[in-house]
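haha ok so turns out i had the wrong file open the whole time. this is the CORRECT one, sorry everyone. sequence first:
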Amino acid sequence: MTGGAITGTKRENPGRNLPQGHPEVPEPRIGLLLINLGTPDGTDYRSMRRYLGEFLSDRRVIELSPWLWQPLLQGVILTTRPSRSGRNYAKIWNRERDESPLRTITRAQAEGLGARFADGEGVVVDWAMRYGSPSIGARLEALAEQGCRRILLAPLYPQYSAATTATACDQAFRALMTQRWQPAVRTLPAYHDDPGYVDALAESVRQGLERLDWEPEVLLASFHGLPKENLAKGDPYHCHCQKTARLLREALGWPEQRLRIVFQSRFGPKEWLQPYADVTVAELARQGVTRLAMISPGFAADCVETLEELDIGLRETFLEAGGERFAYLPCLNDAPGSLDLLERLTRRELAGWLAA
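then structure:
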């Protein structure tokens, strides 16, 4: 399954006198490409191996020499991990569409955002994945075919990291290197402390808690982890996560102990950003906390890391350690508040282009 433009159609420029045999020239438009991490095409071994192979071969993700890393990746990790990861994806797979929830939600975000732009604004909204399909290169080509001479790249990562935002932009720039007539390009910056983002998170938490018939003693804000050495190398991700959690806490009017920050998804022998989510969840239960809720402010859309790792895996960890009530509150996804935020952020970055 591939992405598709959400608004705009290919049209000739009326009144333009083109030489005989000259290719049709579409009317100039503005492209807006939403980019998320990626997804396998299926839960089977081959689909998972292909996806994990692309993901784990990214030098932004695994900062080891390929001479050291690739033999381990190709010989051990990609022999065993695809089956295990496939089972995790199978637990949360959207069987109606036969795709991962991340693909379903990202498509819905693009469709919802596309509907926010009037026909006369000439904005074509599309979506792509850094790993897997629809690929960034394919969707940039599709935007070019529709006459998009100006393109806003919008990586959907509130907190900046070289392993997320940077690699998404890297891949887009690689694709642009193959184009003879490159468009003008802008990139959406991190929005970890944007007031609209914080307000959307706070409202999402309030609505999520209202749906419960019990009140959590602690709310954990879980962010995807990174090796601790990335912080020392100058990656601002850890600081961005901390600021998001602080601003959200202030917006909710909560004390520090009621909303705490943790980091999930670590692997390998290196020390990662702490406190670790799985360790913290178990410790809270052993300390007598019986009611726990979790959110994932760093994910723009629910995915295997939230729906399987948190809502299934850490739920089991908490209950087995003595906890009694556990709730995972969904990401912003394609809710109205999320679309309001995306529209606000992208219109800000399109300033001047839209007027033109």
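Residues 8-12 have pLDDT under 50 and may be disordered.
again sry for the mixup
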